[in-house]
TrEMBL record:
The lineage of its organism: Bacteria, Bacillati, Bacillota, Bacilli, Lactobacillales. Coiled coil: none annotated. It comes from the Bacteria. NCBIfam families: PRK13661.1 (NF010182). It is found in: Cell membrane. This is UPF0397 protein BCR23_04060. InterPro entries: ECF_substrate-spec-like, UPF0397.
Length: 183
């Protein structure tokens, strides 16, 4: 996890937000339930959050989801935007002991990260997002909690499979700690 807020991290937030928008707009699989899709933006958010930390992950989730909503719907759905920021923070904290930068991503890292992401997704999308929908927008509870359960399942699967593969691929491109090869 990055401890400083470097120029590299700021650039990552900008580029990460743009990629989040593109993935959220154009690389989704509809579920048939209103406004609930299998999103590829969250596995990407998981990777970037692990590499750059929880603050960057939170900002990418907030900025990316806000821009996606404005460009897709013309307005923002703040409850889920806030939750995208929260889940970015969760992914960042979940990856705090993973050293992808030095090519480290073993079975223990995979299991630990995925346990945290499952719990995080369950709390954020299954509880916080629908509750905010009811409180802020007076949405019908049965509808938004159903959306929440669908979002939990889809995000857990997407991050568990695609996110894990992205992290493994990223780690494989990095020089291992203690290697005699120069960075």
């Amino acid at each position: 996890m990055k401890k400083d807020f470097s120029v590299k991290t700021i650039v990552a937030i900008g580029i990460g937000s743009a990629v989040f928008v593109i993935l959220g707009r154009f690389v989704v699989i509809p579920t048939g339930f209103p406004n609930t899709n299998l999103e590829t933006s969250y596995p990407f958010l998981a990777l970037i959050s692990v590499v750059f930390g929880p603050v960057a992950g939170g900002l990418i989730g907030l900025i990316g989801h806000t821009l996606k909503d404005f460009t897709t719907y013309g307005s923002a759905w703040w409850s889920w935007i806030l939750c995208s920021g929260i889940i970015g923070v969760v992914y960042g904290f979940a990856g705090r002991k993973i050293d992808l930068q030095h090519g480290e991503f073993n079975k223990k890292d995979i299991i630990r990260f995925n346990i945290y992401q499952v719990i995080g997704n369950a709390l954020v999308w299954g509880l916080v997002a629908p509750t905010l929908d009811v409180l802020i927008y007076s949405e019908p509870a049965s509808k938004v909690y159903t959306q929440g359960v669908i979002a939990v399942v889809l995000n857990v699967i997407a991050v568990g499979i695609i996110g894990t593969l992205l992290m493994a691929a990223y780690a494989a491109t990095r020089t291992k700690k203690g290697s005699l090869t120069k960075d």
